[in-house]
Write a structure and sequence with these properties.
mainly beta; Jelly Rolls; Trefoil (Acidic Fibroblast Growth Factor, subunit A); about 30% strand; disordered C terminus
């Protein structure tokens, strides 16, 4: 999960609007856009809310081609490619990840990514936030920056957009601390951690995509994405490309940390993924 993203391929998601050919933006792992960095110069989005200022965000996106995790966001993000804490983001995400059970239906759901947390409501289950598995979903996020936020959304071909949540910000997120960057298809720290995202070595910079926690069952969890390091099909050949997938505790996700700083899969074939001064 590298900080570098690529632009999308225009013909990937063709649509017709009022009889005219148009193109949607199909964001897959390692594709997306963000404004805060232009070359090596930091630049905030013009006129975007910062700190505890109020803002509203809306988009029309696909409910039938949604991510199954985090982070494919649209909205206000950090001004540098680094996780700077809760409340430093205010972005929409349409995801089939049930972030607070019980959830209504199989997903996906319109949610708010506020950094270090993706919310359907104030952090508890919200059955009013219904699944929206339609080709075109209208999604709205309204945040007063001080105490409350709201989510609205529904089938974009219908005349009304139902309310999904209107209430208090989650604990620890009031007031907000927005930074004014803009992202589309990536996370606030420039990650794009959908299932199947490839893992590679990168200079250490502390972003969420470089943080791993070993679980009791031997899996390595990336807290930002909620996904686990995976050795696809338990392939132990040298040069095998690792990725991240939903945590299942399967043999291809179980690793043992050795005193030699090697990570050994349970197949007993040793390989290094974290040499000194490097990170995943």
């Amino acid at each position: 999960m590298t900080p570098r993203q690529c632009g999308v391929t225009a013909p990937t998601l063709p649509v017709t609007v009022g009889g005219h050919k148009a193109y949607g933006i199909a964001t897959f792992p390692r594709t997306g856009y963000r404004l805060p960095v232009t070359g090596y110069r930091l630049a905030k989005g013009t006129g975007v809310a910062t700190g505890a200022q109020p803002e509203s965000i809306y988009e029309v996106a696909s409910g039938s081609n949604a991510t199954n995790g985090c982070c494919s966001d649209f909205g206000n993000v950090e001004n540098a490619s680094k996780d700077t804490g809760a409340g430093h983001m205010d972005a929409l995400i349409i995801s089939s990840a049930c972030t607070a059970s019980p959830c209504s239906g199989p997903g996906p759901w319109i949610q708010a990514d506020m950094e270090n947390g993706v919310f359907m409501g104030n952090g508890t289950g919200n059955l009013s936030n219904t699944s929206l598995h339609t080709p075109f979903v209208a999604a709205v996020l309204r945040n007063d920056g001080q105490a409350n936020f709201a989510l609205d959304g529904g089938d974009a071909t219908q005349p009304t957009v139902p309310a999904l949540y209107n209430g208090a910000l989650p604990p620890g997120y009031a007031p907000m601390a927005k930074e004014g960057g803009i992202a589309l298809g990536t996370g606030g720290d420039n990650s794009n951690a959908a299932a199947g995202s490839k893992v590679q070595l990168w200079n250490c910079n502390g972003i969420g995509g470089q943080q791993w926690v070993q679980q009791a069952d031997g899996t390595l969890l990336n807290p930002q994405s909620g996904l686990c390091l995976t050795d696809p099909a338990a392939n132990t050949a040298n040069g095998t490309q690792l990725d991240i997938e939903p945590c299942a505790g399967a043999a291809d996700q179980v690793f043992t940390y050795q005193s030699t700083s090697a990570l050994t899969p349970n197949t007993e074939v040793s390989f290094y993924v974290m040499p000194a001064a490097r990170n995943i």
